[in-house]
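Ticket #4471: structure output looks truncated?

Reporter: J.K.
Steps to reproduce: submitted the chain below (462 residues) through the standard prediction queue, then opened the result file.
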Amino acid sequence: MSNPKSSVSTTTQPSLQVHLHAKDLSVLEGQTVVFFSKTSSKKDAPAAITEKDVTQVFESSLEDKLITGAACEAVTFREANLNEFRHVIVIGLGADSKCDHEVVRQAAAALVKEAKASKFTDVFVHLDGLTGSKKDLPKYTQAFVEGLHLCGYNFNELKNSKTEQKTLNIHLVSKSAKEKSLIAAFNEGTILASCANFAKRLGDMPGNLMTPTILADTAIAAAKGTALKVTAWDKKRIEKEKMGGLLGVAQGSAQEPRFIVMEYFGAAKTKKPIAFVGKGLTFDTGGISIKPSAKMEEMKYDMCGGAAVIGTMLAISQLKLKVNVVAYVPATENMPGSRATKPGDVHTARNGKTFEINNTDAEGRLILSDALCYASEQEPQFIVDTATLTGAIVVALGNVHTGYFTRNSALKTKIEKAGTASGEVIWNMPLTDAHVKDMKGTYADLSNTSSAAGAGSATAAA
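Returned output as attached by the reporter:
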């Protein structure tokens, strides 16, 4: 019996499809190893496999430690001929006590990599082997589905000579597949990963094909058929709204800025919304304070905060969450054109505060200032601001942790709980009055760069 199936939702042809089946394979017990396999010919789930079958086939391999069950260990046994399974892949989950969301996501990625390397087209997964606890199965299923789709993302739509890619069908088989909790986990994992892949595509698009206007139009198109209302303010409207930070950064570019507004109301209109703000720098040269040429092509990714916010709003609407959420993405290029802001220039933010530009490459905080002012005026419950604001955070934390700043203890607790629940590794960074003081201006209310050296991410947040 087949339940939901899914494929990654991008404009590219999906190379991976995931299906959920209700059938009991009864393969392995415990959490040290997960069992996967490829059927020889049939598209439906094959006959059940017993623990005795597995023990007989893999007893020597277990004794010789060819299979250890270490996290993300992938071992393929060709021509295993286990019942109706011709080949068998064994993926490790590591120690029971250390198994979490990310371990399961990585295990899913290891499966996809191994299956593609082996040129398999249909893989059946013993989903119940993810955990010995039935109550934990839905959350690990969601993480596993996320891992499959995230690993299946491939940006090749701009290549003329695309390599012929066969679709990899992954069949998740579980005796609990008819249960609402597992179906819901499967669907939620699919939606979250699909929206994450959508955001990744926005970032991967080169700057000439993902301008502020294209970004806005793409967000509007993606929201069709959902409960999302998306509008995009043009330059005239932005001028009317007195967004001097966004306009000041945009004036060196031939591309007009956009201010993307996304609204979702899944709860009573009387309930205050949550607000998201995302940095939408579709390309950042640094402006007059121009960046070094090495790796500048990666500055197309300076809009990934905005892309993440757009993807988040799409996920919220598709999941039909019972919350009210609004989002704002200021989008522009930062270019060194003849009208570009010069170091020392002074502009005025939406709230009337003046700021001097001492480094035009510190532009993200300028466009975000107007968005944060506007978001504050809507009196939300709280604001989540997400941005590739400064490389200083990578110096502090590397590429493992996501740094976040807040001086609100209640919000800090919520963020920590959300990180634990979703398996995201986050770290609370310092934000003090000293950091705020560092941003006072000499010739204006504020400066866009710190008066002191160091703590670049904290002063940017300030």
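Triage note (M.O.): checked the attachment and the full token line is present. The first strand starts at residue 2 and ends at 7.
Status: closed, working as intended.
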